């Protein structure tokens, strides 16, 4: 008999199914469809199982990230000169100078920010607007490119929205809209393509079943590498 339960780990709810088996230790598995299953030695109390799952929370999250597009918590930024910020996978050093007008330029390894107000909040806003502007153009270009292949597989043509999100690189809605995290503009272009293609596949195959992974492989034969690259990039 299989039972269901869930635990909280930080802000994350971890639902899981469990069953009892003749074994000495408790085993936890995370599957490509993101479900978590537990095999527990007979007689283990549900409370003890919950404790074990909670203890493995970090590992479960990591395993989820292998399959899904979770974004780890980003370090706090200070928006002062000398700090580095990324764009399309490259690092740029921030250089904030006071001036009569606001402008952001990305060149020779630097983000040159001229601002009438050099408070971190104002600098953050300028930089984010710059990112948003570039994200809109580049995401649209990448989507057009990635969609060419997807269209042949009868994936419906999506609308695109760019939004700040805290926990995911991207997602899609039932209404056929792909949402991409503004943060994704910091990742290399092939990682952006992976997130877009992953979401395009969800427009046809909602869940991470075998058909989903098969379609993804067809559209992006090296998707495992890209997934790995994205996860490595996110840990920096
Ligand atoms: Zn997915």
Q: Can you summarize the main beta sheet?
A: 4 strands, mixed
Portion of residues in beta strands equals 25-35%
Helix content: 25-40%
Bound molecules: zinc ion
Q: Which residues form runs of ≥5 with pLDDT under 50? A: none
Mean pLDDT equals: 94
Q: Terminal Cα separation, in Å?
A: 43 Å
The coarse overall form would be globular
Widest β-sheet, arrangement of strands = 1-2-4-3
Helix/sheet category = alpha/beta
How many E-type strands?
11
What is Rg? Answer: 21 Å
**Annotation field: number of helices:** 6
Taken in chain order, the helices and strands follow as: EEEEHHEEEEHEEEHHH
Keywords:
236 residues; 11 strands; 6 helices; 4-stranded mixed beta sheet; alpha/beta
Structure notes:
The chain has about 240 residues and is α/β, with parallel strands linked by helices. It is built from six helices and eleven strands. The chain has a four-stranded mixed beta sheet, covered by helices on one side. Strands 5-6-8-7 form a four-stranded mixed beta sheet, with helices on one face. Bound molecules: zinc ion.
